[in-house]
Amino acid sequence: MSFINPKTDFGFKKIFASPQSKEVLISFLNAMLYNAEPTIKDLEIIDPYAAPSVTGLKDTYLDVKAKITGNKTVIIEMQVINVEAFTKRVIYNAAKTYATQLKPREGYSKLNPLIALTITDFILFENTEKFRSHFVFKEVEENFEYYREIELVFVELPKFQKKLEEVENLIQSWIYFIKNAPALEEIPEKLALVPEIETAFNIANKSNLSLKELEDLEKREMFFEDQRGAVIKGMQEGRQEGIIEGQTVLILRLLARRTGEILPEIQARIRQLSPEQLDELGEILLDFTSQEDLIAWLESVSG
After folding, report:
1. Are the C-beta atoms of 255 and 223 separated by less than 8 Å?
2. 211 phi and psi, to 5 degrees?
3. How far apart are CA 303 and CA 294, in angstroms?
4. Does the pLDDT of residue 281 top 50, yes or no?
5. Angle at the Cα of 248 (from 257 to 251), degrees rounded to 5?
6. What pLDDT score was predicted for residue 239?
7. CB under 8 A, 24+ apart: contacts of 181-187
8. Which of 75-89, 114-128, 191-205, 221-235 bottoms out in mean pLDDT, i.e. has the lowest?
9. pTM for the predicted model, two decimal places
C-alpha cells in the first residue's frame, strides 16, 4: 500500500472533506477540540472558500469548513510553511468567518460560535513543549473567560515525537496518522482499532485514486516541496528578501508551466504583491487554466 500525504492541501481535503469523510472528521475533531470526548454528534461539511461580501476584504482559502453540534462552525487549515504574518492570517480568517455569518440587516444575536483549528508542520510557539494549544478570550488579571465565541486551536506536528508503540490515545493516534501516513506501507493494527482512522487510511490509499487525482496530487506535492526549498534557501541566506524573491521566482516558474510564458507587465504586477498575496497565489495557481485566470485573480486582489 501507498498513502497520500495528509499534510498537502489535496491530501487533507481528500481525507477529511470527501463525501465519505463525515465520521472521519467527527472523530478527528472530537480528538483535537474536545480531548477525544464524543462532544460532536453530527456535522455538515461545507464549502471552505469564502469570497468577500464587503468591499476591501480579502478572499479566504481554507482546507475544511464544517457546521458541528451546538450550531458551531469549525474552520481547519493545514499549513506546511511558516509564511510571513501567518499568525495574523489565522486571526483574520477566524474573524472574517465569524463576522460574515450575518446576512444584511440581521442582528448580532444570529452570530454563532466559531473554532479555528490550525495544524502546522513547523513550530509556532517556542515557549511551550505542548503540541496542542487552545486559546480563548480571558481577562488579563483574574483569568475569567469572555464569551467563548471564537476559539483558536493549534496543533504543531514537529513537537509530536512519539513512535507507534508509544501512542496512547485517540489524539495521539490522529496526529501520528497525519505525520506518518506517507511513510507507511500498510495500516498499523494499533491504528486500525479505530474504525474512523482505518477509513481515513482507505481514503488515503493511492490505489483508490483516479488518474486525475494522482496527477493533481503529484503537482501539489511538487509545488510544496519546491516552495519549502525556496523558503529554506531564503532563510539560509538570512534575508527576508531572499525568501520573498525565492517564492516569487518559484511561482513565476509554476505559472509559466500552467499558462505559458508570462508577459513582462504581468511579472511586474506579481513582483509587487505582498507576501500574504504571494502565499495566496501559490495556493491557487494550480487551479488556473489560462493567463486570463491569472489576470482576473490579480484584478481581484488589486481592487
Report:
1. no
2. -60, -40
3. 14
4. yes
5. 25
6. 47
7. 181/3, 181/4, 181/5, 181/6, 182/3, 182/4, 182/5, 182/6, 184/1, 184/3, 185/1, 185/2, 186/1, 187/1
8. 221-235
9. 0.73
